[in-house]
Amino acid sequence: MNTNTVFILAVLIGIVAFIVGLYNSLITLKNQTKNAQSQIKVQLKRRHDLIPNLIETAKGYMAHEAGVLEKLTQARTLAMQAGKGAKATAQNENMLTGALNHLFAVAENYPDLKANQNFLALQEELSSTENKISFARQFYNDCVMKYNTKKELFPYNIFVGIFNLENFELFELDNPSEAEVVKVNFN
User: Fold this and answer.
1) How far apart are CA 160 and CA 110, in angstroms?
2) Global confidence as pTM
3) What does the DSSP 8-state code read for residue 65?
4) What 3-state DSSP class applies to 103?
5) What DSSP line would sit under 66-97, residue for residue?
6) Which end of the chain is more exposed for a tag (fewer CB within 10 A), N or C?
7) Residue 162 phi, psi (nearest 5)
8) Are 20 and 106 contacting, i.e. CB atoms less than 8 angstroms apart?
9) Who contacts 42 (Cβ-Cβ below 8 Å, separation ≥6)?
10) Are 23 and 155 in contact (CB under 8 A)?
């Protein structure tokens, strides 16, 4: 073999190694994003599983507040049937959060319910789960941002179409009022 052939072969091997490195980098970020998405689903499932227990505990105390419990049940059902994509899931989960917040607001009128150990434990579990969901969403959005950014950077953007990589949506607030500070009034 002459030196020209060796040089051309080395350049070709270098180009192939470079493309393989690009591809592997994008696939790693894609899989990390899918994992983050799965973590959100795990926490949402935990939340959905806690709600029937909360409803059963509240039922005995809130007999004439059946509408609140019914709306919570409907919101849970809708959230469990989450559509495809982060946006649809976020919309359904935001409705569920609103229904839960309404239940806890109404529960303030029932001192016996507020003192019930089972209700307090479920409320604490839901609060903890909400924090985990928030963290999981933030981690997911971080992964999506890294993935989407890398896909747009040169030279990755040249190969994105060739690799046929999927897109991921960020979890975002649809309603600007959801970002406002909640006002609490004990009067």
Assistant:
1) 57
2) 0.69
3) G
4) helix
5) HHHHHHHHHHHHHHHT--SSHHHHHHHHHHHH
6) C
7) -65, -40
8) no
9) 136
10) no
**Number of helices followed by number of strands (H, E) in the chain:** 6, 0
Give residue-wise pLDDT tens across range 63-77: 667 778 788 888 888
- How would DSSP label each residue in 18-30? HHHHHHHHHHHHH
Could you give the CA distance from residue 153 to residue 40 in angstroms, rounded to a whole number? 27
Give the length of the chain: 187
CA distances from 26 to 11, 145, 147, 184, 186 (A): 23, 12, 7, 46, 52
User: Is pLDDT at 169 greater than 60 in this prediction?
Assistant: yes
- The upper half-sphere exposure of residue 39, i.e. CA atoms within 13 Å in the direction of its Cβ, equals 19
In whole angstroms, give the CA distance from residue 141 to residue 126: 22
- Candidate from 6-10, 56-60, 68-72 with smallest mean pLDDT: 56-60
**From CA 7, how far away is CA 9, in angstroms rounded?**
5
Question: Residue 147 in contact with residue 31, Cβ under 8 Å?
Answer: no
How many CA atoms within 13 Å lie on the side-chain side of 23?
Answer: 10
Rounded Cα–Cα distance for residues 105 and 63 (Å):
16
Instruction: Provide the token pair at 25.
Output: 């980098």
Is residue 71 a contact partner of residue 65, using CB atoms and an 8 Å limit?
Answer: no
Q: What is the C-alpha separation between 171 and 154, in angstroms, rounded?
A: 26
Q: CA end-to-end span of the chain, whole Å? A: 91
